[in-house]
Automatic annotation (TrEMBL):
Taxonomic lineage of the native organism: Bacteria, Bacillati, Actinomycetota, Actinomycetes, Streptosporangiales
Signal sequence coordinates: none
Molecular function, one GO term: catalytic activity
Top-level taxon: Bacteria
Name of this protein: Fe-S cluster assembly protein HesB
One record GO biological process: base-excision repair
Stored SUPFAM superfamilies: DNA-glycosylase
Domain HhH-GPD: 24-184
Length: 189
């Protein structure tokens, strides 16, 4: 299956081939539209002139990296804060996984272990870790035992509630509608 989260072919192609780009896109997916967040890794790689590596992101001067993200069009609504989070994520990946993010799921014992490893990433919390685990299982075929349970409601078959369920423009519309309905229901309580 082809990733279609950025809804731009060149950005989605990068997300499909680079686990680091996919993790960074998920990290950026807050307080901006999903397409903007998942285009971020492509924008960064274009500005660097090559695909992202955790080692390079870690070693980049923090002020220069923040300036790189702030160039127009900005990578995120909060480029300086997100630059710091990306560098923290990259440093964690270098320290714990030799800069190879795919080791998070390739070396995990089961779905619960993948969730634990994702939840430990800087900038990731329970919900983001569950959504990313569901994305791995639903779209990339990474399905260790217990992955659906560890992904919580995001792992449910047929769910339409997160980026894990976006495979084209129609599913993006359904996920957006479900999120708006959930917000309305929460306000009504």
């Amino acid at each position: 299956m082809r990733i279609q989260l950025a809804q731009r072919s060149e950005a989605d192609e990068l997300l499909g081939r680079s686990p680091l780009a996919l993790l960074v896109g998920m990290l950026l997916d807050q307080q901006v539209p999903m397409e903007w967040a998942f285009t971020g890794p492509y924008t960064i790689s274009q500005r660097l002139g090559h695909d992202l590596t955790a080692e390079e992101l870690t070693s980049y001067d923090p002020e220069e990296f923040a300036a790189l993200l702030a160039q127009q069009p900005a990578v995120h609504r909060y480029p300086k804060a997100m630059a710091g989070r990306i560098q923290q994520l990259a440093a964690h990946l270098v320290e714990h996984y030799d800069g190879r993010p795919e080791r998070i799921w390739e070396e995990a014992a089961d779905g619960k272990d993948v969730f634990k490893r994702l939840n430990a990433l800087p900038g990731y919390g329970k919900q983001k870790a569950q959504i990313f685990l569901a994305l791995l299982g639903k779209q990339l075929g990474v399905q260790p035992s217990g992955w659906r349970e560890a992904a919580g409601p995001y792992g449910e078959e047929g769910a339409q509630r997160s980026v894990a369920d976006v495979v084209d423009a129609d599913s993006l519309s359904r996920v957006r509608a479900a999120k708006q309905e959930a917000k309305r229901a929460a306000k009504a309580r």
